[in-house]
Specification:
- By secondary structure, the protein is of the alpha+beta class.
Length: 166
């Protein structure tokens, strides 16, 4: 972990310990993928004294909620606002560090052609536009997208539209 995130930056690996404690063996013989699907670890050469100190200071500890291991999550980028989860402590809130993180995923765009949208939704007919619903309580996160056309107008969640659009 690079110490650029300040004194709490080393908590990333300690947070991973929390994630593991609450979700052991749900996928079989392993719990955390050894790829970027779970987290990137660049090896001992990339470790910093600050992160090692944070891990040592929290050794043997995990986060709990209601007496059970808490379901903790991490992401490389959240657009400046966390998404709400299914548990009371997983609330949507601003992330003041996102804009200053230097993360190349902080802002992105995908260009979709009319033809690509029409091919993905055969009943749509001729593509006419998008009706986008954003939730201000989630920092403007897109919660619903209706694809407008001369045929059937499919309604998708923001996540469905994003993952289906590349």
């Amino acid at each position: 972990m690079e110490p650029a995130g300040g004194p709490g930056a080393g908590r990333g690996r300690a947070d991973l310990r929390d994630l593991r404690a609450g979700h052991l063996s749900h996928r079989g013989a392993f719990d955390v993928w050894d790829t970027t699907q779970s987290q990137v670890y660049r090896g001992v050469v990339a470790e910093q004294p600050e992160s090692n100190a944070a891990i040592a200071a929290t050794a043997g500890q995990i986060r709990t909620y209601g007496g059970a291991p808490a379901f903790t999550q991490f992401s490389s980028s959240n657009g400046g606002f966390t998404a709400p989860g299914s548990l009371p402590y997983q609330v949507a809130k601003p992330d003041p560090y996102e804009a200053t993180s230097g993360n190349p995923n902080n802002s992105w765009q995908v260009v979709l052609t009319d033809e690509a949208i029409e091919a993905q939704f055969p009943g749509l007919g001729d593509f006419e536009g998008l009706d986008v619903v954003k939730d201000p309580a989630q920092g403007g996160r897109v919660t619903k997208v209706t694809i407008l056309g001369t045929g059937v107008d499919p309604e998708l969640t923001g996540d469905q539209f994003r993952s289906g659009s590349g």
